[in-house]
Design brief:
The chain is of the alpha+beta class. The chain contains three helices and 24 strands. The chain has helices at about 1-20, 270-295, 295-300, and strands spanning about 25-30, 35-40, 45-50, 60-65, 70-75, 80-85, 90-95, 100-105, 110-115, 120-125, 130-135, 140-145, 150-155, 160-165, 170-175, 180-190, 190-195, 200-205, 210-215, 220-225, 230, 240, 245-255, 260-265. It has a four-stranded antiparallel β-sheet, with no helix packed on it. Strands 4-5-6-7 form a four-stranded antiparallel β-sheet, with no helix packed on it. A hairpin with a 4-residue loop joins strand 5 and strand 6 (about 80-85).
Length: about 300
């Protein structure tokens, strides 16, 4: 019995060890008018204030897929690819864009909004063009996000948020009407948060309903993580709020340099890792048991790779 407890204890430690290797969420902030990108912890700690400090050309948006970080260079009309450690992979992965303003990733597909021709294009993570005009007829699409398999686009001069399928189909071109210019947006669960030109962050439902158009009296680039909403504005400060609009930390980060955009890396999925780890651990336990009770059978089992 003691041996069994010890073995299962080792198995649990293995699972916990695997889950512990998951990368924590980080905040990425574009600074210096789009000339550098800094990395910070959700607690406001500085990880690397100059993660990327060269090769950018009015960087305006960031997205992450796995260990790759994609940067939208508005002035150059390009998407650059880096590792999440800031190492360049291909600074001109995608070129020839028409004033790109936002980026979103789903699976192996990368979506880019272009305010120069009011379109959204679809590309592969390898830079290949799938459909450069997947969605057309937009009205200055300056912000974009993906949730629940749908694409949500903020039309600056249309004063609305439109909803589209990832295949480019129109679900509702004016799902949410906002009282002023929608400058930035973020989705958490069934709630859509929109920072507008009237210096407010409003809360709306994915069904298009208005919950509170003046939830927070601040504006800027916004992002959500868990129960928190983060706002970065031109004062060089990153503020943290609860999703209910309550102030958590008025100056979570206060040493930013002309920040223009914020992005929070996707949350890890410990359940998948834990399940994989548990499977490996229980296989190890099973082998150990049969090796003890039937040595000849145990020798036939394949070794761990």
């Amino acid at each position: 019995m003691k041996t069994a407890k010890k073995i299962y204890g080792i198995a649990l430690a293995l699972v916990c060890g695997l889950a512990g290797t998951l990368k924590a969420q980080d905040i990425y902030v574009i600074n210096s008018g789009g000339e550098s990108i800094g990395e910070y912890g959700l607690d406001g700690s500085t990880i690397n204030a100059s993660l990327i400090s060269s090769g950018l050309d009015e960087a305006i948006a960031v997205a992450i897929s796995g260990n790759d970080l994609f940067v939208v260079n508005e002035n150059a009309g390009t998407i650059g690819e880096y590792t999440t450690a800031g190492v360049p992979i291909n600074t001109g992965l995608i070129s020839g864009l028409d004033v790109p303003s936002a980026i979103a990733i789903s699976g192996n597909d990368l979506y880019v909004s272009n305010i120069g021709n009011n379109t959204i294009g679809e590309y592969g993570l390898d830079g290949s063009t799938i459909n450069a005009s997947l969605i057309t007829g937009l009205d200055y699409p300056d912000a974009m996000t993906i949730s629940g398999g749908n694409l949500y686009v903020a039309n600056l001069f249309g004063f609305n948020i439109g909803e589209y399928g990832l295949d480019g189909s129109t679900i509702n071109a004016s799902l949410i009407s906002v009282p002023d210019l929608p400058l930035s947006m973020a989705i958490s669960g069934n709630d859509v948060f929109v920072a507008d030109g009237d210096i407010h962050i409003g809360e709306y439902g994915l069904d298009g309903s208005t919950i509170n158009a003046t939830l927070i009296n601040q504006s800027g680039s916004i992002a959500t993580s868990g129960n928190d909403l983060f706002v970065v504005d031109g004062t060089g400060t990153l503020t943290e709020y609860g999703l209910d609009g309550s102030l958590v930390n008025a100056s979570l980060i206060s040493v930013l340099d002309d920040p223009s955009d914020i992005f929070i890396s996707p949350a890890p999925e410990p359940s998948e890792v834990a399940v994989a780890g548990l499977g490996a651990a229980m296989l190890w336990v099973w082998r150990r048991k049969h090796r003890t009770s039937n040595p000849s059978f145990a020798r036939k089992l394949p070794r761990n790779p």
